[in-house]
Structure formats: C-alpha cells, structure tokens
Specification:
Elements (H helix, E strand, L loop, with lengths): L9 H53 L6 E4 L4 E4 L2 E2 L4 E6 L10 E8 L3 E7 L8 H5 L4 E7 L1 E12 L2 E5 L6 H8 L17 E8 L4 E7 L5 H6 L1
Antiparallel strand pairs: 1-2, 3-4, 4-5, 5-6, 6-7, 8-9, 8-10, 10-11
Length: 228
C-alpha cells in the first residue's frame, strides 16, 4: 500500500517562521544588551583609569609641592620656581628618592595640548623665567587624559589673614627677598606664602563632563619656606 506524502500547510509555515523570528529577536536583543553593557563597562573603566591617573598627580605631586628657589641671573635674585596660569601650572615637587635617581626633586608642568591633558616631568631644573634654556633639559611626557576640552586652575593664598582664590599666581619678588633674607626686604608683602596654600584643577571633557580636584600643598608653611 502506497503512503501519501504530507506537506506543511501555510498556517504551519507561518507559525514556524514566526517562532524563528521571535527566537532570533530574543537572541539579537540579548546580544545588543550584552554589547551595550560591555561598552558602558569599558567607558566607566576608562574614566576610572583617567581619574586615578589625575588623582595620582594631585596626591603625589601637587600635595608635595615645595617653594624651591633658584637664582635668576638677570635679576641677580633668588626666585621661586613656580608659575600658575589659568590653563597651566609649572612647579617643583618633593618625592621619594631611590638608588639610581638623580635627586628627590622633580620639575612638573601640567597643560592641555591637542585635546590631551599632558604632564611633563624633568629631574633637571626648568625655570619659568627662561623657557628656551629649560626646553634644552630632557623631560618625559605622560598623557593623563584624552578628549579634554580645557583645564583650569585656581590658586589659594593668604592675604592679610584672609583666604583668597585667584586664577593666576602673581609672583611677589618682595616676599622672595624677605623670606630668604628678612633684613633685605624693601617693602611689606600682603601675601604670606611663596606658593599657593591649595590648588584646584577643573578638567572639562569634549563630551561636556567636568571633574574638579582640590589639594592642599605640603610646602607652604613658614617654617618650610625658611629652610628650603
């Protein structure tokens, strides 16, 4: 006896295709959800690494900033190696010295260049009053953050027993003289310290995010200024 072949009906084919589409939709949705979650994790991880890099600079360098002085041959006077501008900072920091290091001092500059927050380090003196000669000294560069639109600094000082914040640190040559040799001071200075009491740094990224860091400096005491 010959058996007749049974074919799928139109309804069965539609139901089967609907089930396949539904399963494919579930797989695609799950894959997209996993991919988006992975991308968010990568973004958060990158931001965390960036913040940790900036935290390291603020904790290890800004916090250990000292009022290091060097003689300016043109003025025949000792000056503090520090330059505080609204969008960059140049300072000297004290660090732990190891066996093969050239000293415990490190000269640092922070600035934005090509949408990157750059830190420049040098073990040799770099002076803000002689940029050309300072550029001849070797230094290393580190990219702390990418896609940075701008960086801005605020500097805290004590003037007449009051805390004052400025976006630019004006060098007080009278204070430099009075600290190194009190008898040679030619005028009284309103400011108490050679370097800022604290430094605030605000970083703005190209996507509109903003983060603020604030650290007190270690080398701003009057006793430290008299001994450095």
């Amino acid at each position: 006896m010959r058996k007749s072949k049974r074919f799928f009906t139109l309804v069965e084919m539609i139901v089967a295709m609907a089930v396949m589409i539904f399963v494919a939709l579930i797989i695609a949705t799950a894959s997209m959800t996993f991919y988006n979650a992975w991308q968010r994790t990568v973004r958060v991880s990158d931001r965390l690494k960036t913040c940790q890099a900036i935290d390291r600079i603020m904790d290890n360098c800004i916090r250990n900033m000292i009022p290091f002085r060097w003689k300016d041959k043109d003025l025949d006077q000792e000056r503090v190696v520090f330059k505080g501008e609204p969008d960059n900072i140049h300072f000297v920091s004290l660090r732990r010295a190891y066996r093969h290091d050239k000293g415990a001092l490190i000269f640092i500059r922070l600035k934005v260049e090509n949408e990157q927050l750059i830190a420049e380090y040098s073990q040799y003196p770099r002076f803000q009053w002689d940029e050309d000669e300072s550029e001849l000294n070797s230094y290393s560069r580190e990219v702390l953050a990418d896609r940075v639109r701008s960086v801005s600094f605020l500097y805290a000082s004590e003037e007449e027993d009051e805390l004052v914040w400025n976006d630019r640190w004006e060098e007080d040559l009278n204070l430099n003289v009075s600290v190194s040799n009190p008898r040679s001071a030619t005028a009284d200075s309103k400011r108490t310290f050679l370097i800022p009491i604290a430094v605030q740094m605000t970083v703005e990224w190209t996507d509109g995010r903003r983060e603020v860091w604030l650290r007190r400096t270690a080398g701003n005491s009057k006793n430290t200024q008299l001994t450095t």
